[in-house]
């Protein structure tokens, strides 16, 4: 049987899909080898969210062909959807498989291999059958994960696609419109993973706040009403599951009612990622975000009303086209006021094919770097202040791995708030939930538990 090497680029959805693809290959008898080894087949699950992601995808495809010029190099996913001309012209790529066809990876691959063995003429898309027009499908690509490389936490994909069309984002064109997975299939997958020993699941997708809007014929885009909380309440009933963590949320999904319903579910981790991007309303308008800074602040307050010290994280883009010094200062002051657990700071990067790439008043790189550095310093300070609030308090930690730090052996895990914690012991605590008191900092980003 042939050796297959896999490499994943991009988001948690891609990682989930890669885990399922590996599972399918192993079930068919393919031998999985590390990507840095010589293989008969290389499969790269690509990303296209930025121009840099496109470049990294191409680099990995070229690296694979360089390792073994006789190997079959397969490009899968988002870069395939948005870069068809580049894929066709790239001599390093033998086979291209688009989104919504990953579930058919094995039969597509075997059809291609059979054609090659019989010297039949076949192109990179099997005559346009392995790449579909992703914007014209309403089908959710059903895949089921039975195991993952992690031992304690499993990511569960509940939906695909996005209808938001933010002006800087190409993902709706790579992933298509919102397509939600049936609740029964999600619950069945979670139950299987719990039986396999996983204690925590993370609900993920391209825009999980839109979960279920496609079940309603009249509702074509996210309006602030979500079936996500209904799904979470059903998953909460699964026996043996200890933690439910939510992926990135649209701020508008956090109404007073939803926050209250979440707070009534003890398995839901008080750790919420609410993507912001800017604290200046004029910038948010140019980004085509569908809320104001005031509405976002109210969402944060709703969570803080029902949870004691919840961990709230966000994304911020600096240097978006037209971002004046005044708008940047508004964002900076707003972020000081929000005082979140973590912020992921990104310098705006043009993505060809988006409206933002063609906007006037592009911000010079030097200014973007200066603004980014200032916000990164703020993020570091606020994150440390948040962690300090847990010193001398009792926490529950789900341990994940052993690690040696400064010559001592520690078990490392996370609290429900996703704060990293260490306990000095040689005992194997992997996948164990343990309670203890936080003594202080072991490192800048790890708390020490006794």
General description of the model:
- The chain has 450 residues and is an alpha/beta fold.
- 34% of the residues lie in helices and 22% in strands.
- The chain has 13 helices and 17 strands.
- Strands 2-1-3-4-5 form a 5-stranded parallel beta sheet, sandwiched between helices. Strands 13-14-15-17-16 form a 5-stranded mixed barrel. A 4-stranded mixed beta sheet has the order 7-6-8-9, with helices on both faces.
- The protein is globular, with a radius of gyration of 23 Å.
What keyword list fits this structure?
17 strands; 13 helices; 450 residues; 5-stranded parallel beta sheet; alpha/beta; 5-stranded mixed beta barrel
Q: What is the string of helix and strand elements?
A: EHEEHEHHEHEHEHEHEHEHHEHEHEEEEE
Sheet/helix structural class: alpha/beta
The tally of strands reads: 17
Helix content: 25-40%
What ranges have pLDDT less than 50 throughout 5 or more consecutive residues?
none
Mean pLDDT equals: 95
Total helical segments: 13
Based on CA inertia axes, which overall geometry fits? Answer: globular
Portion in strands: 15-25%
Order the strands across the largest sheet as they lie in space.
2-1-3-4-5
Using only C-alpha atoms, the radius of gyration works out to: 23 Å
Main beta sheet: 5 strands, parallel
| Gap from first CA to last CA | 50 Å
């Amino acid at each position: 049987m042939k050796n297959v090497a896999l490499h994943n680029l991009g988001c948690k959805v891609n990682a989930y899909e890669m885990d399922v693809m590996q599972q399918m290959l192993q079930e068919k008898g393919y031998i999985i080898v590390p990507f840095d080894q010589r293989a008969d087949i290389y499969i790269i699950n690509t990303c296209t969210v930025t121009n840099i992601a496109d470049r990294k995808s191409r680099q990995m495809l070229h690296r694979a062909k360089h390792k073994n010029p006789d190997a079959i190099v397969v490009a899968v996913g988002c870069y395939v959807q948005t870069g068809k001309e580049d894929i066709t012209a790239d001599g390093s790529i033998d086979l291209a498989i688009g989104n919504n066809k990953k579930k058919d990876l094995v039969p597509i691959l075997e059809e291609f291999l059979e054609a090659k063995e019989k010297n039949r003429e076949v192109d990179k898309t099997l005559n346009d059958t392995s790449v579909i027009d992703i914007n014209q499908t309403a089908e959710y690509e059903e895949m089921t994960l039975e195991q993952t490389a992690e031992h304690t936490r499993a990511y569960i994909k509940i939906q695909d696609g996005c209808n938001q069309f933010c002006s800087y984002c190409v993902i709706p064109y790579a992933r298509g419109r919102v397509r939600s997975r049936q609740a029964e299939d999600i619950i069945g997958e979670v139950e299987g993973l719990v039986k396999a020993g996983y204690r925590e699941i993370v609900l993920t997708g391209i825009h999980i706040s839109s979960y279920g809007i496609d079940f309603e014929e009249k509702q074509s885009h996210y309006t602030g009403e979500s079936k996500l909380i209904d799904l979470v309440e059903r998953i909460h009933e699964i026996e043996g599951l200890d933690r439910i963590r939510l992926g990135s949320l649209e701020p508008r999904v956090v109404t007073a009612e939803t926050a209250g319903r979440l707070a009534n579910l003890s398995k839901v981790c008080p750790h919420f990622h609410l993507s912001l991007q800017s604290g200046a309303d004029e910038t948010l308008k140019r980004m085509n975000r569908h809320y104001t800074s005031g509405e976002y602040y109210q969402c944060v307050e709703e969570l803080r009303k029902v949870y004691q010290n919840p961990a709230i994280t966000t994304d911020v883009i600096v240097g978006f086209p037209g971002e004046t010094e005044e708008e940047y200062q508004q964002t900076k002051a707003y972020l000081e006021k929000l005082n979140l657990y973590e912020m992921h700071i990104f310098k705006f990067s043009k993505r060809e094919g988006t409206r933002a790439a063609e906007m006037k008043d592009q911000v010079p790189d030097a200014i973007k770097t200066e603004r980014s550095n200032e916000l990164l310093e703020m993020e570091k300070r606020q994150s440390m202040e948040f962690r300090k609030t847990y010193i001398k308090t009792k926490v529950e930690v789900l341990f994940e791995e052993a690690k040696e730090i400064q010559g001592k052996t520690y078990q490392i895990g996370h609290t429900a708030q996703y704060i990293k914690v260490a306990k000095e012991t040689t005992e194997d605590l992997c996948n164990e939930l343990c309670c203890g008191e936080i003594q202080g900092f072991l490192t800048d980003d790890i708390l020490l538990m006794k």
